[in-house]
Amino acid sequence: MKILHLSHTGLEYDSRIQKAMNTCLKNGLECSFYDLGYSNSLNNLVISGHLPFFWNKIRDKVDKLMSKIKPDIIHAHDIYAAEICRELKVPFIFDSHENWLDPPKHPYKNPILRYIKHRGLNKFSELCKEIITETPTLTVNETILELYKKYSKHVYLLPNYITLEESNNINFKAKKEGVTYVYVGNDYPNRAYFRNIDRLVKLFLTGKYGKLTLITNKNPKLNEYVTVQKFMEHRELLNYLTQFTVGLLYYEPCTDHHYFLANKFSEYAHAGLCILYVKSLTNVARILGDLGIAVGAEDLEETLKDLRDRREYLEDKGEKIRRFAVKNLIWELYEDNILKAYNQV
């Protein structure tokens, strides 16, 4: 069986696509990858809710590629790829890397911008509903799975956990002195409001709660208590994380937290970090139970103050999370769902 993996982002930027292709190969399937291109332009579609003038050009390229390699199934890794498959009337599955049926609403003070954005989101929500009703679908966490199953019984869970091989190859480093925190995440001008970490950074800049390292795409000048590390290759990242005591899953208050399960959750866990997360992240709470530490916006400062001299307690939690992760938070436990989805096409 030939599988064509289709996405609007490059293969090097999405480890989920790489893992899915490896699953195909080890199960004797032929697979290839095609990048739709126009990544930034396609992401901006959500603002208008309309397909762009170059849409037909992209679809025609995919059509020609189909004629050339003749795949049996297309594995569509985003809603744009899935819509192209629908228009071409070719067999495909939809791999929903995020929740498109009820995506986070980004508030704007300007009522006109707010109206335009919500109109675009509503159109994509309707499109997602049509896609998951018509074709087998994979998605990344239990909450989105439950939502999608209202519209189709052919929805399968495939969390974006690291592989067992990646976990086994982690090179554990000596912990940094004291209680140290790490946060992994992009920083960009138009980031969603709930991803804003300015409050978190300001707390650590005071030097009252330990040291924080941000692994991000920017390099601002901060101080001795908050340092910045540029993004790195995934294996290097996993090794680097092991030096810290606590991994932060921090978001500003948002009504959509119950749909979130960030990739860094699995990375923190396998690196043996204690995980401190906002308590509205229900997927994290469901998985970790009392292994992690849940915190509300109102008691964040008090919690950080309480933990600053409890290194042994935090490291013990991190070791327990690591043991739990190796048994429960690995890609291989769920990868057969890819094959189940293919068999439903």
Automatic annotation (TrEMBL):
Its EC number is 2.4.-.-. Pfam families: Glyco_transf_4. InterPro entries: Glyco_trans_4-like_N (IPR028098). Residues 52-163 form the Glycosyltransferase subfamily 4-like N-terminal domain. It is an enzyme of class 2 (transferase). Keywords: Glycosyltransferase, Transferase. One of its GO terms (molecular function) is glycosyltransferase activity. This is Glycosyltransferase. It comes from the Archaea. It comes from Odinarchaeota yellowstonii (strain LCB_4).
